[in-house]
Amino acid sequence: MAGVMVPSVLLVCLGNICRSPIAEGLFAHHAERAGLDVVIDSAGCAGFHVNKPPDPRAIATAAAQSIDIAHLKARQVAVADFYRFGEIYAMDETNLAELQSLKPADATAKLGLVMSMIDGAQTPGRSVPDPYYGGQGGFDQVFEMLDQAAASWARRQSLTAGED
Ligand code: 4NP
After folding, report:
1. Is the C-beta atom of 58 inside 6 A of ligand 1?
2. Atom of ligand 1 nearest to the CA of 74
3. pTM (2 decimals)?
4. Which of 3-7, 12-16, 111-115, 129-133 has the lowest mean pLDDT?
5. DSSP annotation of 44
């Protein structure tokens, strides 16, 4: 009964306080709009900010577009995530390399770059830039990129939801 499996996606950045919480909010938003039954979560490669809410700039950028991420709490990626999630998407090449080095040989999760949702291309340069040390423009860019990725992902899920 493969049809009862709920698709699950983990979104990963470095700190889990800027990019991946915005991604989590947007993936959940597009899934809800498309009526998809999915599990969405986010995590960081590093543990510096564990249990902290998203960066205030990330919360404000998402809230300006009616996406509420204020309740989220940072956590670090765990080995169990490679078995619990069907898909794990990194924000940038550094995060992807870290995930590849953590991934157990028998892990079931599929790994990729989040921006590969748009065109399927796993090419360098399709990274979501780290906005932590920059200004508001960086957060706006992150939001726009991830909105496109989440919309593409939800469209693809809707197309494949009726299969099996
Ligand atoms: P994120 O951004 O990976 O998008 O959550 C960062 C957050 C914190 C740090 C770096 C990037 N930091 O160095 O503390």
Report:
1. no
2. 5
3. 0.94
4. 3-7
5. E
